[in-house]
Amino acid sequence: MVITLFLGLTPALANAVSGGQLQQQAQVLTWTAGDDFRAYMSVPTSAVAGPATLVFENSAATGNTSGMQHTLTFDTGNPAYNRDVDVNILADPYDSKGGRWTVDVVLTPGVYHYFCAIPGHGAMSGLLVVSGGNQDTTPPTVTAALSGDQDRNGAYVGAATVTLTATDTESGVEKVEYSLDGSAYTTYTTPVTVTQPGQHTVTYRATDRAGNTSEPATITFTVVTPPDPDTTPPTVTAVLSGQQDGEGSYVGAATVTLTATDTESGVDKIEYSLDGQAYATYSSPVTVNHPGQHTVTYRATDRVGNTSEPATVTFTVVAVSHNPECPVLDTRPVVWLGTVNTGLPNRLVGDGCTINNLIASERNWLNHAEFVTHVKAIAEHLLHLGVVSKAERKSLIDQASASAVGKADNQNGYETILDRSGASFKQWEQVGAGGFTRNADGSITSLPVNGLGMLWFPIRQYGDFSMKLQWRDDAPGDKRANSGVFVRFPGVHKHPQEPRPEWVAIKYGHEIQILDAADGDRYKTGSVYGFRGVDLDGAQVTTKGTWNDLEIRVVGQHYSIYRNGELVNEFINTPGAVFDPPRSDDPGSAGRQNASGYVGLQVHGAADVVSFRNVRVAPLNP
């Protein structure tokens, strides 16, 4: 409703603007003005929703002896108030109505703000509270929330802040008040912070625009003096584990476990350096399997920046005898049954094998029963050799029985991220050159296009994981395809050091090589490209055109590569290793110390045609 009445118009025009002769309603609300430009002479304060007649009189009868003009204007620009009635009446004793104007309106529940729009008369203003047809008798609802740093006893260290919030669904909140520790009430405008040590009580209440005040409520809390600044660094300890020979050397591998404690601000990070290399952040036990003497330097930093003095632990790793039954020694610290960490130390068994080598849970088992039977036989053999105790034998058998090894992958925690459906293929993104085409059977085949590229899965990053897939060499003629699988690389777009998306994976992740050629690149299938190679014999080459199973397991910085269920390579991603052959802009292993990352499939070149299918990933809990 918009009604505007102007002084100085002819009576006919004034009536036309005001809507003609108005019918007075049962509810009449009257404002009066006089010679005072600071306040109306009289105003209504409340009304009931529905039809109403507004009366504005600025005449000699209401005390105007000077002929001063005033307006009654309803505010329609402030969202804090009702804006559905647009009234702007200008009146003085000498206008066509003698200074008395009326207008019919319809009021809705809420609050209207009115004022005089004459310059200099801004102090003439007020609020009209309209109830929903019944008198507002309900006070506001008030809540209090405490915030601040707390100690173990729940006391607030240094300061506590009280935030008050009030709501009123009828006339609206007029004000919130609070009292601290029994002092006089103060109007609340911003959160109240209390720093004085001791127990405190804040009492609070709120009043609505109809005058209803809530019952006082309280919140009690304690503030304690902050402790002296933390200047003490964390305490760090190192524990070595692994199988030792008679001279104390570790046979095959040694594992360093670091632990840090800080009783004040807490531990922020632990770092370590292997053999003088750059420090790296410690996230899981570090396994060293290179023969020779090694030194791990370690330190820890707390949450306020105190760093412990570097400490060291020195040890020697000796090579194990080569065992043709275990061509690659499995040096993982613990025994795994598929995706299950048994917690049992992965000990050496005879010459050149470990428990993990013998159990070989990553093989393609016919069924679960076959695997359990195998584990029972291995466990009995280990007990006979004195490698495990009776309790450990039982634990191995029980955990094998409870595992899902030999069952469907989805029962082992694997999620398929590339299946036979077009929908799963659409979740992947191609960057760089080339690409893949989807085949009728759901597999994908690289396009014969020159240049490096990658199809990556941008949906999620993986921390410790097992990734399984199948690949097939489909290179034309007698050529063997060169390809690979990228793991643990960061997001490829807008990388701060590398603008080419496909090169982000190459330089800041690890590529697990696919190449069965007798010539060409020395890194064959199963190699961690640039860091730990596999030769042609170790790659366990199959006939071209054969589907191969590939599994990549990463726990911490320990990489295990399996081809068709057989371990073909192990790599421990310690910082300081240099990419080989050297590249001037390659960050080495120090730039690849990622605790999580994405996965992708490589496109290598026009003649390097390769197919992939059935890509699955399962999380691993070290």
Summarize the structure.
With 622 residues, the protein is mainly β. It contains six helices and 40 strands.
Report on the structure:
The protein is mostly beta strands. The protein folds into 5 domains: 2-131, Immunoglobulin-like; 141-224, Sandwich (Immunoglobulin-like), CATH 2.60.40; 235-318, Immunoglobulins (Immunoglobulin-like); 334-409, no CATH class; 414-619, Sandwich (Jelly Rolls), CATH 2.60.120. It has 6 helices and 40 strands. The strands form 9 sheets. Strands 28, 30, 31, 33, 36, 37, 38 and 40 form an 8-stranded antiparallel β-sheet that branches. It has a 6-stranded mixed β-sheet with strand order 1-6-5-8-9-3. A hairpin with a 5-residue loop joins strand 30 and strand 31. Helix 3 (368-385) packs antiparallel against helix 4. The chain starts with a strand and ends with a strand.
Write the layout of secondary structure elements.
Elements: E1 2-5, H1 11-18, E2 28-32, E3 46-48, E4 50-57, E5 70-74, E6 86-91, E7 100-107, E8 110-115, E9 125-131, E10 141-147, E11 156-157, E12 160-167, E13 173-180, E14 186-187, E15 192-194, E16 198-208, E17 217-224, E18 235-241, E19 250-251, E20 254-261, E21 267-274, E22 280-281, E23 286-288, E24 292-302, E25 311-318, E26 334-337, E27 340-345, H2 355-359, H3 368-385, H4 390-402, E28 415-418, H5 422-425, E29 429-432, E30 436-438, E31 444-446, E32 453-456, E33 465-473, E34 482-489, H6 501-508, E35 510-515, E36 548-555, E37 558-563, E38 566-572, E39 598-603, E40 610-619
Parallel strand pairs: 1-6, 2-4, 3-9, 11-17, 19-25
Antiparallel strand pairs: 4-7, 5-6, 5-8, 8-9, 10-12, 12-15, 13-14, 13-16, 16-17, 18-20, 20-23, 21-22, 21-24, 24-25, 26-27, 28-40, 29-32, 30-31, 31-40, 32-39, 33-36, 33-40, 34-35, 34-39, 36-37, 37-38
Helix pairs in contact: 3-4
